[in-house]
Amino acid sequence: MSRAIIDQIVEQLKVMPQPMQQQVLQFARELGQSKIQGIPGKDLLKFAGTLPPDDLALMKAAIEQDW
Length: 67
What we know:
Helices cover 69% and strands 0% of the residues.
C-alpha cells in the first residue's frame, strides 16, 4: 500500500464537505468488495493474427484520428 497515495487522498478528503466524504467512503467500500474480473492474456493468444490487415489499418487510423 502506497503511503503517498493514502496521504493524497486524506488531503483531498479534508477539503471536501461531509456529504462528499461519505460518497468517497462508500465508493472505497464498494471497491474493496469488488472482485477483479477479466481473462488472462494467454487465453486470448488464440485470436492473435485473426484480424485482416485492412481492418487493422482502419482501426489504427480511427484511433490516431481521435487522439
